[in-house]
Amino acid sequence: MRLLERMRKEWFMIGIVLAIAGAKLEPSIGVNGGPLKPEITVSYIAVATIFFNSGLSLKTEFADSRLHASPCVFCSDFNQGSWWK
């Protein structure tokens, strides 16, 4: 039972070790043009997932305090748009 408890506690590290071992055994999966398409998944999907995940972890007080920025951005965009006239 002690091993199972340790594995539950260290699940992230075990996952990283398994991912590295899998990449060492079969590197053709992650090569450019391979089945994972790292040129797309790393560039777009991974970055979007990281930003989405960090947005979910924001406290609601912080997010509510940032809502006032929307009208300011709109006004500055509107003012800059009228410079060309």
Automatic annotation (TrEMBL):
Short name of any one Pfam family annotated for the protein: SBF_like
InterPro entries, per database record: Na+/solute_symporter_sf (IPR038770), Put_Na-Bile_cotransptr (IPR016833)
GO CC terms, sorted: plasma membrane
Family stated for the protein in its record: Belongs to the bile acid:sodium symporter (BASS) (TC 2.A.28) family.
PANTHER family: SODIUM_BILE ACID COTRANSPORTER 7, SOLUTE CARRIER FAMILY 10 MEMBER 7
Protein name: Sodium/bile acid cotransporter 7 isoform X5
Protein species of origin: Callorhinus ursinus
Source species taxonomy: Eukaryota, Metazoa, Chordata, Craniata, Vertebrata
Gene of this entry: SLC10A7
